[in-house]
Design brief:
There is one protein chain. The protein contains three helices and twelve strands, in the order ααββββββββββββα. The chain is an alpha+beta fold. Among the domains are: 84 residues; 118 residues, Thrombin, subunit H, CATH 2.40.10.350. The chain has a six-stranded antiparallel beta barrel with strand order 1-2-5-4-3-12. A six-stranded antiparallel beta barrel has the order 6-7-8-11-10-9. The protein is rod-shaped, with a radius of gyration of 48 Å. The C terminus is likely disordered.
């Protein structure tokens, strides 16, 4: 019984408090204001994390797209850089070639001789690889007959050993089969310049024991074999030795031309033959009256 009265009393008290708060709120509006503020805060607590996630997702996507664009741009720039690097290398190579060709064309052949340009296409190639030789892109159609002298502005390179229609083999002066009659430019001492093989010095044979020869003296072609024009520089003397058991000096020399790095050369031939080779493109006669025969040993 008492419990029922207590419950009724609590309910009445609660109803009184409710009505009082309702009346007070109706008059002041405080509770409505508190409710609206609390609801907004709750909504804010729910929305803000979602908004943060959305913002971060958008930012991440934008950075991803930016990185993709940046990567494409970097790839394009890298490709352009590679292209420019290749173009620069080609330009430098062309400039070097132009300089070599300008120097080659500035070479003044001896009187009554002319030069026809040729390009080296191979070193020690084919059945003649046992010889110290190069292959050039001129054959009989370009005037490259057997024994045609081959030179650069620095000096004598060798002579044509075998000639096809469009290519020829040039025997270098360093080969053991090469024999070139030479003179000292200063003392005019004569001898025969002989090759000892690639990577080795040249030897000047048959120089008399008391003949004047100086280290550093330039050796030139003497023209005695009637193959090379007289006066072409060939080699520089690097050593002179006298022997008690020989009638001749031991004279060593080095080529004036950097033979391993040959790229372009000149074929030397009489002016009429050179004009015929450059104009009509037919095979000219061999340079010199005895050009068909090997050089004097």
């Amino acid at each position: 019984m008492r419990s029922k009265k207590g419950i009724v009393a609590i309910l009445l008290l609660a109803l009184f408090l409710y009505l009082s708060l309702y009346a007070w709120n109706a008059r002041t509006g405080v509770l409505d204001d508190m409710a609206s503020r609390s609801g907004l805060e709750f909504v804010g607590l729910v929305i803000k994390p979602g908004q943060w996630v959305a913002d971060q997702s958008v930012a991440l996507w934008k950075r991803y797209i930016y990185l993709l664009d940046l990567r494409r741009e970097n790839d394009a720039l890298r490709a352009h850089l590679d292209e420019m690097t290749l173009e620069l290398a080609q330009t430098r190579e062309q400039a070097a070639e132009v300089e070599r060709l300008r120097r080659l064309l500035s070479f003044a052949p001896p009187q009554d001789w002319d030069g026809v340009g040729a390009r080296v296409v191979a070193h020690r190639m084919g059945p003649n690889a046992v010889l110290d030789s190069v292959t050039i892109d001129k054959g009989t159609l370009g005037g490259a007959e057997v024994n045609t002298p081959v030179a650069t502005p620095d000096g004598l390179v060798g002579r044509v050993l075998r000639s096809g229609l469009s290519v020829s083999t040039v025997l270098l002066i360093t080969d053991r089969n090469s024999k070139v009659p030479v003179l000292g430019r200063t003392h005019r001492t004569s001898g025969v310049l002989t090759g000892l093989g690639p990577g080795r010095p040249l030897e000047v044979r048959y120089v008399p024991l008391n003949a004047p020869v100086d280290v550093g003296e330039i050796l030139i072609t003497s023209g005695l074999a009637q193959i090379h024009p007289k006066g072409l520089p060939v080699a520089r003397v690097v050593a002179v030795e006298r022997s008690d058991i020989s009638l001749f000096l031991t004279v060593l020399a080095e080529p004036l031309v950097n033979l391993p790095d040959l790229e372009e050369v000149l074929l030397l031939m009489p002016e009429a033959a050179a004009a015929q080779a450059q104009g009509a493109g037919t095979a000219p006669p061999a340079p010199g009256p005895d050009a068909a025969a090997p050089e004097a040993q």
